[in-house]
Design brief:
Blueprint: E1 29-38, E2 43-52, E3 58-67, E4 71-78, E5 83-90, H1 92-96, E6 103-106, E7 108-111, H2 117-129, E8 137-143, E9 152-159, E10 170-171, E11 180-186, H3 187-195, H4 202-213
Parallel strand pairs: 4-9
Antiparallel strand pairs: 1-2, 2-3, 4-5, 4-7, 5-6, 5-11, 8-9, 10-11
């Protein structure tokens, strides 16, 4: 008996070994077996499949996939004041892989956890920044690490009101171990921080560059 497959895991889930077995969208892929390697909170699977290459021959492949659910992220902006609202928090994976202190500057983000993508970003904006936000604009949806992680991240942008929380305030959900600092930055400063390596989070870089190319700060002069 396998936890998460035949026996409920700590979240009450079973059948996690069935994920992907019924896919028929690509005739060059035949799913043969799915094993659950871990299912503590997210799910790590090993999938065995046959793949037909461009020259017609078939090969048997195995891949591990990490399934943490889909997420959503949001760039908060105040065009009149020329600012964006970001966060800074500790990220262990970045810390153990060479980031000096693991404190990453990021756009607000989180998992959907059963909500719609727009509901999720509104929830995360409230939890991580304490701000009320205006109309939410959908930007794009992206697979962030498609070689190993199943997550699809939904990108949004919205104006924010400079109301309840102040920059430097600590936010987050205490029960989830969150300790999040709110940062309000001039948009041009945020762009310059990308070039200096001070902002190294992919989703945040993508949102800031979108804002400069096609979004609310389109046409802003390039930082030195």
């Amino acid at each position: 008996m396998t936890t998460g497959a035949d026996v409920p895991d700590r979240r009450g889930r079973t059948g996690l070994d069935q994920h992907g077995r019924d896919l028929t969208g690509n005739p060059r892929v035949r799913i043969l077996d799915v094993q659950v390697l871990s299912c503590d909170w997210s799910v790590l699977r090993k999938t065995t499949f046959d793949y037909r290459h461009g020259d017609g021959h078939w090969s048997r492949e195995q891949r591990e996939t990490y399934d943490r659910g889909d997420g959503a992220t949001l760039l908060l902006h105040d065009v009149a004041r020329g600012t964006v609202l970001l966060t800074r928090q500790f990220r262990l994976p970045a810390y153990v892989n060479g980031h000096p202190d693991g404190m990453l500057i990021e756009a607000a983000a989180g998992l959907l956890d059963g909500d719609s993508a727009e509901e999720a970003v509104r929830r995360e904006a409230a939890e991580e920044t304490g701000r009320r936000i205006g109309e939410v604009e959908h930007v794009f949806d992206v697979y962030m690490s498609p070689g190993s992680v199943t997550e699809r991240l939904h990108f949004f942008a919205a104006p924010y009101e400079n109301t309840t929380a102040q920059p430097g305030d600590m936010r987050g959900v205490a029960d989830e171990g969150e300790d999040i600092e709110v940062l309000e930055l001039p948009f041009s400063t945020a762009l310059a921080m990308i070039r200096r390596g001070e902002i190294a989070d992919a989703k945040t870089i993508m949102l800031l560059q979108w804002a400069a190319l096609d979004g609310p700060f389109k046409g802003i002069s390039r930082p030195a």
